[in-house]
Amino acid sequence: MPGAVPGPTGGAAKNAAARGAALAREKLAQAKADAAKRGQLPREPRKKAAGPRRESGDPQLFGRAITDLLADRGWREPVAVGGVFGRWHEIVGPEMAAHTTPQSFADGEVLVVADSTAWASQVRWLAGQVVRRLNEELGDGTVQRINVQGPQNGPPRSGGLRVTGSRGPGDTYG
């Protein structure tokens, strides 16, 4: 993010990059599975594209071939989102990326999970800037809102014994 405070470098940046690459691979696999459900398998014959006709054996620029493949299979947006999720640490800054993870994208909403309630509040406060930055990467209007979730588990409890049932005023007497 512009103006983001530089965070830890070295190992933390490498971990964030590895985590981002794994997330991008996961999103690409999800996009392929979704395409297979729609019946758009990679071995299906290609639809004829408008434009200059080319013979099947003629060479084609690699970038153009990939762009055509993504468009034909309906993978353009899922791949773009996976790429953004894979570069999350570059987009939001290393400090925020160390404490947040994008989980999913659906209907213009990005689900972000924070590792603490403080970071969840921080992301909610900066949601407008994050949406603007994501739309710079994906195209205007692609991301409309961010849904932020805090940690799913509370702090670890110490000790082995637990009292079950509800607590109430009777617990303080006696």
UniProtKB/TrEMBL annotation:
Parts of the chain that traverse the membrane: none
Region annotated Disordered, chain positions: 1-62, 143-174
InterPro entries found in the cross-reference section: DciA-like
Pfam families to which the protein is assigned, alphabetical: DciA
UniProt biased composition (Basic and acidic residues): 24-44
Bias-annotated ranges (Low complexity): 1-23
Protein name, entry field: RNA-binding protein
Organism of this sequence: Planomonospora sphaerica
